[in-house]
C-alpha cells in the first residue's frame, strides 16, 4: 500500500508542473543514479538528458545542445588592446578600434560592422586621388 501511494504522489508531482499549476503529461521521473550532464539551449547545464527533457516539457523552446556542461559565457565586454585606431560602425558610432566594435556588437546583441576607417563623420579613403 505504501509503495502504491508513493508512486501515485510522485506521478501527481510530475504532472503538476512542480507546483507551477501547469499540466505536464510528458514529465517523467528521472533516476537518481549519476548520469552525464547535458547543455540546454538556454545555456543551463542539466544533470542528465532526462532532466533536460522534463524542462523541455515545460518550455518547448529549451532543447538539447550537446553532452557535457555548458561553457561559461564570455565576459562583456571582452579585453581589447588599448590602441586608438578609430572606426565608424554601421550604427553611426565611433569605436576606438575594430575589436571594440566587435565586442560591443557581441555584448549588445546587435548586427554592427565597420562602415569606414576613422571617426564617424569623416570618411578616410584607402586610395589617394590625383596621382
TrEMBL record:
InterPro entries attached to this UniProt entry: Kazal_dom, Kazal_dom_sf, Prot_Inhib_GrowthFact_Antg
UniProt keyword Zinc-finger, yes or no: no
KW Glycoprotein (keyword) present: no
Domain Kazal-like: from-to ranges: 20-70, 71-122
Top-rank lineage group of the source organism: Eukaryota
GO BP term (any one): cell differentiation
Pfam families: Kazal_1, Kazal_2
Leader sequence residues: 1-21
Gene Ontology CC entries for this record: extracellular region
Keywords, alphabetical: Disulfide bond, Protease inhibitor, Serine protease inhibitor, Signal
Protein name: Kazal-type proteinase inhibitor
Annotated source species: Penaeus chinensis
Amino acid at each position: 500500500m505504501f509503495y502504491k501511494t508513493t508512486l501515485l504522489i510522485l506521478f501527481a508531482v510530475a504532472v503538476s508542473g512542480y507546483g507551477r499549476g501547469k499540466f505536464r503529461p510528458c514529465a517523467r521521473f528521472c533516476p537518481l543514479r549519476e548520469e552525464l550532464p547535458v547543455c540546454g539551449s538556454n545555456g543551463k547545464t542539466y544533470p542528465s538528458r532526462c532532466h533536460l527533457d522534463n524542462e523541455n516539457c515545460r518550455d518547448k523552446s529549451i532543447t538539447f545542445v550537446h553532452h557535457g556542461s555548458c561553457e561559461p559565457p564570455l565576459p562583456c565586454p571582452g579585453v581589447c588592446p588599448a590602441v586608438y585606431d578609430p572606426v565608424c560602425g554601421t550604427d553611426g558610432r565611433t569605436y576606438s578600434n575594430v575589436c571594440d566594435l566587435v565586442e560591443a556588437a557581441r555584448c549588445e546583441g546587435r548586427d554592427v560592422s565597420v562602415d569606414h576607417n576613422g571617426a564617424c563623420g569623416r570618411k578616410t579613403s584607402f586610395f589617394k586621388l590625383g596621382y
